[in-house]
Each structure stands twice: as C-alpha cells, then as structure tokens.
Amino acid sequence: MKQFIFLLVIATIGIVSISCNGRDRVFKTNTEVLIENKLLDSFSENITYVPETYTEVATDTILYNGFHVKLKTYTIMDKHIVNEFKQDSIVYKKYYREFVTDVIVTKNDKEIFNERIDKEFIHKHNNNLQLNKAIINVMVNQVSSVKNHGLVLSAMIKDIQNETITFCDILIDSEGNLVLKEVQELYAFNEQT
Fold this sequence. Notes:
Layout: H1 2-19, H2 30-36, H3 40-44, E1 45-50, E2 56-62, E3 67-87, E4 90-107, E5 110-117, H4 119-125, E6 134-140, H5 142-148, E7 151-159, E8 164-172, E9 178-183
Parallel strand pairs: 1-4
Antiparallel strand pairs: 2-3, 3-4, 4-5, 6-7, 7-8, 8-9
C-alpha cells in the first residue's frame, strides 16, 4: 500500500511537471499575456518627471549701479505640464514641473520691487504670449542692466510641446516701475555682446 501511494505521488508530480510547460502561451502575444495577468498598464506607460525632486536656486546679486537683487527660483511640485507621445505601443508621459521665481529688488537699501514671477505675472503684463505649455526661467541680465542704468531681468519661456523659446526682458527702473517686452534673443545667446 505504501508503494502504491508513493507511485501515485511520483506519477502525479510527473504529470503536473510535464503538463505545465507553457504551451498555452506559445501562440499568445506579449500584450495578451500582460492583459491576462493584469500587468499591461505597468508596462505600457513610461512616466518621468523633470526635475525628479524639489529644486531650489537662490542668487543674491549686487550691481554697481545700486541695485541689489535676490532671486529664489524653485519648483512647484503639484503643478506640472505633461508632454505625452506614443512610440512602439508605449505611452511616454513627461511631466515638467513648473518653476516660480520670487524677486526682491532694493535700490540704495530701499525695497522697490517684490513680486513672484510665474505664468500669471507674465500673462498680466503681456497677454499675447502662449503660456499653456511653457516653463519660465528668470535670471539677472547684468550687461543690459549696466547699459540701461536700471535692472533687467531676462525671462526665458520654453514651450515644451514644440521646443520653441521666447525671451522677454523685465525692465525695472529705480522707482520699481516695470516694463515687460519681448526680445529677439537672450543676451547670453546674442553674438554681438
């Protein structure tokens, strides 16, 4: 009787081993197998974030014409722009996190300008720009500031959808009044400087 049970167990293990060779999946595509196992979504999307983590850059600039500029540029983690495309049955989603710049300007130790530069700020001063799919970066344009006897902040507005870049100068006078104007190119990219 013990031999019969032993042979039955060995025969059952042998039959199970032979019948579980994956023949039922031979003629299925990878997509069908992933759907069957409810894994298709995890393999059909490639999601990335730019930047991946919180980023903050603070600069403190003193110009010889008396302007003192403090810039704090940082990412807004819950606001982003999505660039989505499909390639080889995989959906690629690139989430560009939005940047905001807090600007404090003093002239001869008197605060003359304190603003947050973001899409709303740019749109308020120039509503002709398309900012739906744009990321904004702000920097001090020292060369133009010296030439204009004021402060010039350069804003680079990058449209992530079609990879175009628009440049704007934010001109601030010694009273804190500003003018935002679109320029052809940023001073750093100008070959004449």
